[in-house]
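User: I'm curious whether this sequence folds into something compact or stays loose and floppy. Could you predict its structure so I can see for myself?
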Amino acid sequence: MKTTTLLRERHKLKNQEEYQVKYNYLRFVTPAESEVAETERREILNRLSTRIQPGYKGSKPDITDISPGCRICGEGTWSCLFINGVCNSRCFYCPAPQHDVHEPETNTLLFPEPDDYIDYLKIFKFRGMSISGGEPLLTFEKSLSFIRRARKEIGDELYIWLYTNGKLFDREKAKKLADAGVNEVRFDIGATDYNTDKVQQAIGIIPNVTVEIPAVPEEFELMKQKMRELKAMGVKYLNLHQLRLTPYNFNKLIDHDYTFIHGEKVTVLESELTALRLLEFSIEGNLGLPVNYCSFVYKNRYQKSAARRRHALKMLKPGESITESGFIRRLSFLPEVSSGIEKILFFDEETGDFLFIPENFSQICKIPGQIKITYFVAQLAPQPSAISEFKSVALNETRDIGIERTLAQPEIILNQTEATQFFNYLNGDQIFHQPEESKWINLLRFENIEKGLQSYY
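Assistant: Here's the prediction. I'll summarize afterward.
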């Protein structure tokens, strides 16, 4: 994706604000390095172009054969429950602290017992759930209790998987997990110095066994050996993530000779290239081990948009619609002459606005006036605030959760020419070129999920 100059500067400022003085210790990619790296990435993808199936607007290079859980994630119908918050490993790349014990949690919501969580899954129509930790095997019986309850109450249509570093894994646990209804176990072998003995314990018992790790540049040659080993033992999928810098792992990551790149968050250049090289190694070597590169931009775009869309459905009002990015879009027509306009538009008595949906634009485009576009974001909230609309959603007779709706940014006014250009864009006009103007950048980022992998800068 070619990021506009304005967005690049915004990202850089945001990255600087996050790390403050520590930002100066980071070595970011130079323009010359960027050109070399983007050329290598492009050449890899070109060489593989007839043998891969890019997905999610190119943010995943190959989705030819990915885990059912990954497909559910892409659909936006996956819930991840963090069961305990503690871990028995200290991987240098871990993005968050894992030493504070807490109740099972997802999206800021605590679920001490399974029943409320199962109702949460039902209310929001999740098709997949996963158990993560820290390390879920540290509280094995609690993990089992949530899995059993979900399988019993929702049935086989729910796909269930569990993340583990494998240190406490054995065949007895594998059998209990399978009996409870687990479809897949994902092992982070980076936590065990790439030892695969524990992975072997799951083969033949758990239906789908996956290895899911960050693409660590230093381990490229080792991973080529391990990929053959994983395929031979019966591992179904290899998921590779991009290394991401966080305030928590900052001191550990800067000890490595990495090149950092800007974006919504700071990520590691060599990690993405390593993942793509391993993807090519698997395909060109006919290993038969599917490699799913889960880029940071995929997770940042698709997982966030899914959450926004899920909550927006609960807060949508008449005359409004939801964008691809999951924001609530409110279109108002500001006519120069209002006579007769109410016959083709929805009048909102609360705001005094004439509202319409994109499909109605052809009916009003010839009427003199302006278009006002307002975007709202819906998200979970523990309690009402003075600046947002709030709704309680009942999970059951004893538990409610709150969703708030807030203004995502100040309203945008388009004249007739701009409005026509905008609605042509919504209808798939390929000629549209995004101007380097704040108005358009602010508008389009609420509309569509970006295409492609991230730019290097």
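Summary: The mean pLDDT is 93. The CA atoms of residues 93 and 249 lie 6 Å apart.
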